[in-house]
Design a protein that fits this description.
This protein is an alpha/beta fold and 202 residues long. Helices cover 32% and strands 19% of the residues. The strands form two sheets. It has a four-stranded parallel β-sheet, with helices on both faces. A three-stranded antiparallel β-sheet has the order 3-6-5. Strand 1 (49-54), helix 2 and strand 2 form a beta-alpha-beta unit. Helix 3 runs parallel beside helix 5 (157-179).
Length: 202
Amino acid sequence: QLTQGLPQRAPAGAIAAEKAANDYSKYAGRCEGGPEPPHCRASPPGPEEVVLWGDSHARAFAPTIEDAARAEGLRMRLYTQSGCLPLLDVDRKAFGKEPRNCRPSNARMLAAIADNPDVRIVILAGRWSLYTEAQPAGPKEAAIAYLVDDKDDRLSQANSRRAFREGLERTLAALREAVGPEVRIILVESAPEVEFSVPTCF
């Protein structure tokens, strides 16, 4: 107990991985459901803002994006909803489960972006590959999640990919109309999917 398990017995990489396993974002469990919570705006070095819009994976990216924004003299604002990609008029659905209605929160977030004159960059991030690759959401989640919309609510990989593509095109068009040509829109790719605890590899 006094030596913390003699960590010197393990390689430095293994110790770093073990520490990272419990290194959660300071925004975890916070900033949920829309643009209202004041703590979801980083301390401002200046008036111009970067908006990060997405699901819980986007929230995990937030500390890194916050640091990058601050380095550029910008402040970050975080709009997230767990289980909801930043896609307009698209729902998440799985076999045997009620669909998750992400439309109200996404509509609120788009409206907040449109009403904010200080926005200079909008970043969209999420767990895109969960819905396009038809993979289980993790070892504890047996059901595969799909994206559906008003055009087609069938649960299939092909339809999920179509709903994703059209939802993204619709969202980008709505964002561009809302913020104008001067605001940059950035799309962040999915983080790699790992179905096991990485530190156990060491």
